[in-house]
Amino acid sequence: MADIKNVLELLCKHLNLSIKVAIKPEYFRLSKYNKITEQSNSVLWATLHALSFYAAKEKRTDIYFEEYDELSATKLYFAFLQYPVIEFYGLSESCTNSRVLLLAFSWLLATQSVLSVVVRVQLLSSILGRECSHPDVSLTEVSAVGTTCSVNTQIKNILHHNSKVNFNLKHISELLQEKAKLANKAHGVSLNIDRLAHMNIMEIVLIKRLLAIHTDSNSTEQQKSELYTIGAILDVHVKWMEKEHIFYDWMITVIKECDKSPDVNTSKINWTGVANFISLLEYIIKRKLYSICSEKTKDSMEYFKLQCTSRLLRTSDIKCEANKLSMDTNARLSQVKESLRINKEELALQLKNILMTVPQCIKV
Predict the structure, then answer these.
(1) What positions does the domain Tubulin epsilon and delta complex protein occupy (predicted)?
(2) Tally of CA atoms within 13 A in the half-sphere of 213 that contains its CB
(3) C-alpha to C-alpha distance for 276 and 68, rounded to whole angstroms
(4) Rounded distance, CA 101 to CA 19, Å?
(5) How far are the Cα atoms of 297, 298, 304, 350 from residue 301, in angstroms, in the given order?
(6) Interatomic CA distance for residues 229 and 18, integer angstroms
(7) What is the DSSP string of 213-272?
(8) What value does the CA radius of gyration of the chain take, rounded to a whole number of Å?
(9) Whole-angstrom Cα distance, residue 21 to residue 50?
């Protein structure tokens, strides 16, 4: 466990870059022994909320519980992911059993591969992902790389190209600035020298305008910052994939610590919190069922509405519509009469058979 300190620092750096949560390594160490502060508690809940959101969205894109508070939304996302620990659903924002939060966090990492999901989403939504998703990209080259290279190799290739793009953007800006400086210098030097080509005012204005267009400070800096961020995320993720087994080995010691702690048992479960969460689930399920029933009722009403001819129906020939409706009604009436006749005959036959079984003293 000598490397666990570095691994926790790497994990915190990963979370800081990918989901923008200011988590610290000591929060994990404190949670192992159920020692927690108000700050670390809120950060752990925020981390679980962000990661569970990504994991649930990976399963189904229409899952969205952000209309509820952070605590309820986090529990709902975990319930959707079928997290089996009842004690977790009874926790409050100021809970003292922070080890349960740490176990839930490790469950997300191990079973849902949530960090890989976050990195993939961040990469696809970045400027690098948008550029690579352009239709000019050769699909054959992408498939060839995907089949011949491992995941680590692919990420390293992306990092290499990302660094090249970032480097080129930086040097393009520097070269344009240098060009403008040299143009101004040449303009100043050539003012008092005969037989030397001199730049007029319009040429100077044109160069400055081109410089302003190509070196838009806001967009260029934003692009460079975004490329730097996604490069840092990919770099940290590669290192995390190589050392994540150390974190899971450390989590085994956390579970052992949990087993030997006498204060963690079923009597410590906040059943009131569990009941409140069950009530919330019941409310959500009822609302969903009501919306489904409403949609079905609406569809059936639309169906029956189309089967009838409206009095206000405007057609080119109203008599034809009335005749059609009359013919349909007569056809249905004939079917009903025929059905009644058949039922009457069957009923008479059954009565006759019953009377034949009655003793001879009864005469029909």
Answers:
(1) 82-255
(2) 6
(3) 14
(4) 17
(5) 6, 5, 5, 40
(6) 9
(7) HHT-HHHHHHHHHHHHHHHHHHHHHHHHHHHHHHHHHHHHHHHHHHHT-TT-SGGGS-HH
(8) 37
(9) 9
Taking alpha carbons only, the member of 261, 256, 264, 286 closest to residue 90 is 264
> What does the pLDDT look like over 91-141, one tens digit per residue?
988 887 889 999 999 999 999 999 999 998 988 887 766 666 554 444 444
User: Which amino acid belongs to residue 172?
Assistant: I
- Counted residue by residue, the chain has a size of 364
pTM score of the predicted model: 0.62
Residue 176: per-residue pLDDT = 67
Instruction: For residue 168, give Cα distances in angstroms to 30, 126, 134, 177.
Output: 44, 17, 20, 14
Contact yes or no for 50/63 (Cβ under 8 A): no
CA 264 to chain centre: 33
Report the candidate in 172, 179, 9, 31 with the shortest Cα–Cα distance to residue 105.
31
The token pair at 334 is 């004939």
The dihedral built from the CA positions of residue 167, 173, 177 and 180, taken in this order, carries a sign that is positive
User: By percentage, how much of the chain surpasses pLDDT 90?
Assistant: 28
> Using N-to-C axis directions, what is the helix angle for 25-32 and 4-18, rounded to 10°?
120
Torsion of CA 17, 19, 24, 27, to 10 degrees: -160
Structure tokens at 348: 């008479």
